[in-house]
């Protein structure tokens, strides 16, 4: 373990002395990197199943004899299951801690994955859909954890970077979900050959998730023995016994926090557009380039892989500058321009331009995923990170379902250009919404990194004068 040097930069020396006495020692433990690494692995295995069916929609339609809408639902189920599970999931995260929630999440992911291994028969689509539903029901213990893991285990100058690394797992899995199915499952004339390829795909994922369950069980811990930052030390100092009233009050606080709620609407629009476009990507690409299933997979891969670079780059930028609102606005503007560029590139029927525009779109839109998390924590501190990020994801999932349905309708009735134009409109509105978010960085104030002085000591503590 290493010890983090801490300086309480306070204007009131008496208050600073009192806080230092109460906080005690602050340390950073090397195992924090093991914790975040394991999380990246099991988040990736969950996310790798997101568009596992829909990126090869035309093949799945042939093999199982279902409609393309049914295949779209294998992706949309991830958005449908999250909102109703948000409240009980957040309750369990706050009640039983990171370790047990991680175990529930990884075991649920494994069970759903194993069920899909037995679904490779033309009449067993419903079994595969059941496995898919279990996998994504377990995501309630995955998607909202990166900011919580970052805050609980990492120092103040590492939090944004650690959160970005946590999000990296989901992005990595998403990237693989675009490229692996088209590479493994070919559009054979013989359905038995397609079934053989699907077995390779499902058994491969099952083989990966099994040892990860063991790693989570052995290494994953709820929190370090000593806090990694002043903010976490204060939260431990003020910590009281968990109660239902306290849990509900945290949601009440967030839902009445105007700045956070404005961000949640903007976040939902941005990530909702990304989810909708990714779900329908196979159909968009085949509209302009027939028999280009592998190109659809590669384009989806680039959307996410280049986006992972953006996640890390902007995570470091946030740690260095603390310009949360400014970075968020910049990413929103560039994402809007990216979707417009992608739309125009498709109209040129140039694969080269489509690939280039996809890289630009992915770089900025994926980076927004993690930056939005961190901005949400800043606006909502000292509320639990899992609660704030959970609400952001919930809004994104709701928007994702709505936008996917709208995108499908517009694609069928008006064509790809106008369908993507609708998405560009939503992103433009989201940019304007982001501009009006009040720039209150409550966590930075608690750390003494702004001009404001803000403490979170218990109200009933006697102060020395």
TrEMBL record:
Source domain of life: Eukaryota
Name of the featured protein: Major facilitator superfamily protein-related
Give the source species: Holotrichia oblita (Chafer beetle)
């Amino acid at each position: 373990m290493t010890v983090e040097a801490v300086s309480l930069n306070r204007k009131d020396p008496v208050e600073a002395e009192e806080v230092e006495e109460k906080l005690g020692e602050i340390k950073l433990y090397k195992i924090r990197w093991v914790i975040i690494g394991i999380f990246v692995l099991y988040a990736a295995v969950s996310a790798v199943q997101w568009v596992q069916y829909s990126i090869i929609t035309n093949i799945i339609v042939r093999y199982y004899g279902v409609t393309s809408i049914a295949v779209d639902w294998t992706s949309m189920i991830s958005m449908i299951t999250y909102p109703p599970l948000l409240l009980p999931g957040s309750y369990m995260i706050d009640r039983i801690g990171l370790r047990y929630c991680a175990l529930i999440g990884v075991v649920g992911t494994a069970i759903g994955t194993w069920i899909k291994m037995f679904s490779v028969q033309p009449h067993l689509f419903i079994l595969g859909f059941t496995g898919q539903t279990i996998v994504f029901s377990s995501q309630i213990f995955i998607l909202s954890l990166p900011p919580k893991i970052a805050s609980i285990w990492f120092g103040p100058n590492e939090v944004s970077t650690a959160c970005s690394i946590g999000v990296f797992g989901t992005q990595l899995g998403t990237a693989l979900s675009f490229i692996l199915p088209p590479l493994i499952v070919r559009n054979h004339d013989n359905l038995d050959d397609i079934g053989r390829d699907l077995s390779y795909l499902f058994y491969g994922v099952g083989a990966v998730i099994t040892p990860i369950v063991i790693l989570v069980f052995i290494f994953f811990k709820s929190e370090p023995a000593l806090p990694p930052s002043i903010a976490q030390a204060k939260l431990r100092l003020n910590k009281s016994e968990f109660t239902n009233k306290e849990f509900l009050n945290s949601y009440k606080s967030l839902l009445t926090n105007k700045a956070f709620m404005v961000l949640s609407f903007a976040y939902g629009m941005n990530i909702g557009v990304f989810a909708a476009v990714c779900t329908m990507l196979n159909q968009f690409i085949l509209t302009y380039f027939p028999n280009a299933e592998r190109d659809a997979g590669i384009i989806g891969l680039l959307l996410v892989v280049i986006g992972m670079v953006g996640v890390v780059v902007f995570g470091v930028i946030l740690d260095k500058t603390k310009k949360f609102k400014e970075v968020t606005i910049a990413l929103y503007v560039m994402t809007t321009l990216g979707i417009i560029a992608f739309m125009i590139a498709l109209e040129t029927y140039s694969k080269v331009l489509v690939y280039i525009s996809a890289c630009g779109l992915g770089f900025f839109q994926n980076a927004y995923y993690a930056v939005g998390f961190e901005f949400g924590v800043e606006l909502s501190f000292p509320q639990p990170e899992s609660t704030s990020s959970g609400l952001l994801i919930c809004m994104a999932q709701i928007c994702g379902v709505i936008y996917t349905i709208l995108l499908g309708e517009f694609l069928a009735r008006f064509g790809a250009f106008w369908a993507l134009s609708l998405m560009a409109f939503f992103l433009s509105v989201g940019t304007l919404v982001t501009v009006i978010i009040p720039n209150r960085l409550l966590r930075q104030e608690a750390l003494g990194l702004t001009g404001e002085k803000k403490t979170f000591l218990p109200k009933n503590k006697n102060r020395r004068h």
